[in-house]
Design a protein that fits this description.
It is a single chain. The protein contains five helices and no strands. It is mostly helical. It has one domain. Helix 2 packs parallel to helix 5 and helix 4 packs antiparallel against helix 5.
């Protein structure tokens, strides 16, 4: 919504951003078991929230679609860690 309202991002581009988010979530969720092995679950959860929250905070700093796509991919990585836990 932010990108659509402030940058004039088209609905097609926003849909593509959702694909980037899903790709990041697929990557990290598929490896959640491996990430948890031998680690403190609270610390892993913190890292997931830090990735998700931090990536959303920097989206307004960039002006390009590629930057937003990278941020949204990192958000997906964090979300993929959070959701299985």
């Amino acid at each position: 919504m932010y990108l659509a309202l402030t940058q004039g991002t088209s609905p097609a581009e926003i849909g593509l951003l959702f694909a980037f988010m899903a790709a990041g979530a697929i990557v990290s969720a598929s490896q959640a078991g491996r990430l948890m092995r031998g680690r403190d679950p609270a610390r892993v959860l913190f890292v997931g929230f830090a990735l998700a929250g931090g990536s959303l905070l920097v989206v307004p700093l960039g002006g390009s679609f590629a930057f937003a796509a990278g941020c949204i991919f990192v958000y997906g990585l964090g979300n993929g860690i959070i959701s299985p836990l």
